[in-house]
Amino acid sequence: MSRAKGNLAEDKACEYLLQNGFYIIERNFYSRFGEIDIIALKDDVLHFIEVKSGDDYEKAIQNITRSKLSKIIKTSDIYIKKNSTTSDYQYDALIYVLGNIYCIENITI
Q1: What does the alpha-carbon distance between residue 12 and residue 69 come to, in Å, rounded to a whole number?
Q2: Where do the structural domains in the chain lie, given as residue ranges?
């Protein structure tokens, strides 16, 4: 996927989140372990959100691998420590396919 398509998917994901009561704290938070696409807050819960897009849902969701989730968790640990965050948190995925957004909460592998 090109960076332009990834940016479009992240922009659409942010629009979706804002329309659904989320407050966007940060986009593209990097650590030495990886990147978190979107960090958002809703109802005092911090959401670490991975955005994936593709031509179909199955291909997009399969790109969230055990390795990718491990990198997200390590990166979120850095964010939490760096910002002295004490909020509850969870890991979510937003899948952008053909103009549709699918939200998957509390992703685990």
Answers
A1: 22
A2: 3-104
pLDDT digits 0-9 by tens, 26-42:
999 999 999 999 999 99
Local structure of residue 33 (DSSP, 8 states): S
CATH class, 3-104 region = alpha beta
Q: Which two tokens stand for residue 30?
A: 């990097």
Vertex 80 angle, CA 1 and 93, to 5°: 35
What is the rounded distance in angstroms from the CA atom of residue 89 to the CA atom of residue 61?
21
The verdict on pTM exceeding 0.90 is: yes
- For residues 69 and 77, what is the distance between their CA atoms, to the nearest angstrom? 12
**Among residues 48, 44, 50, 49, which one has the least CA distance to residue 88?**
44
Contact 47, 93 (CB under 8 A): no
How long is the chain?
109
